[in-house]
Design brief:
The protein has helices at 2-10, 13-27, 39-42; strands at 44-48, 52-55, 64-68, 73-80, 83-87, 95-98, 102-104, 120-124, 128-131, 140-144, 149-156, 159-163, 171-174, 178-180. By secondary structure, the chain is α+β, with helices and mostly antiparallel strands.
């Protein structure tokens, strides 16, 4: 009989629990994605007027993550005080640079790459390492000997993006260790 009494004492609470749970659902607001701003619509083209450090936040107290060269096209999406947030079309991380180091783009500037028109045949000046990305923090994927001819397909942040002669993935070589040669 004690079993039935405990079930009977829970039975009157059931409608109250159902009402409480259904009442909570009404308070949830559905996120309307159409009301969120489209960052692509906010992108404004600017060009750097001096070499600038790209930082993780709006201020010198934030870590520098890259160097943006003078005359580089940058895509500004927002402003925080004297700093602007820029995004990359190449998949690099977004970051902040000082507002005083940019000006609105007129469309006549050089390409976004800091080394426009770098495509072509190059020759290594020293024994060099080919890395998986444009920076020393990327792993070494190959090594080339001094005098090796390389085919450069792009330039980025002081690095040359090179094609593999053996069909491997593309890699990066420091721009300072290679020189352009004619189409030999």
């Amino acid at each position: 009989m004690a079993r039935y009494e405990s079930k009977l004492s829970i039975l009157p609470l059931t409608p109250i629990l159902i009402l409480a749970l259904s009442g909570c659902k009404g308070e949830q607001k559905d996120l309307d994605s159409k009301r969120l701003p489209d960052l692509n619509a906010q992108i404004r083209p600017y060009v750097t007027i001096e070499n600038s450090k790209l930082r993780t936040g709006p201020g010198t107290q934030f870590r520098a993550i890259a160097e943006v060269q003078r005359d580089a096209k940058v895509q500004v999406v927002g402003r925080d005080g004297d700093w602007v947030l820029i995004v990359s079309k190449k998949g690099n991380p977004p970051g902040y640079i000082e507002l005083s180091s940019i000006e609105p783009s007129s469309g006549d500037e050089r390409a976004e790459s800091s080394a426009p028109g770098v495509e072509g045949k190059y020759q290594s000046l020293v024994n060099a390492q080919v890395r998986s990305g444009p920076g020393h923090h990327y792993p070494v994927v190959a090594e080339i000997k001094k005098g090796t001819k390389i085919n450069v397909i792009d330039g980025e942040k002081g690095w040359l993006k090179v094609e593999s002669k053996r069909g491997n993935k593309t890699g990066y070589v420091e721009a300072s260790v290679a020189r352009p040669i004619g189409n030999e």
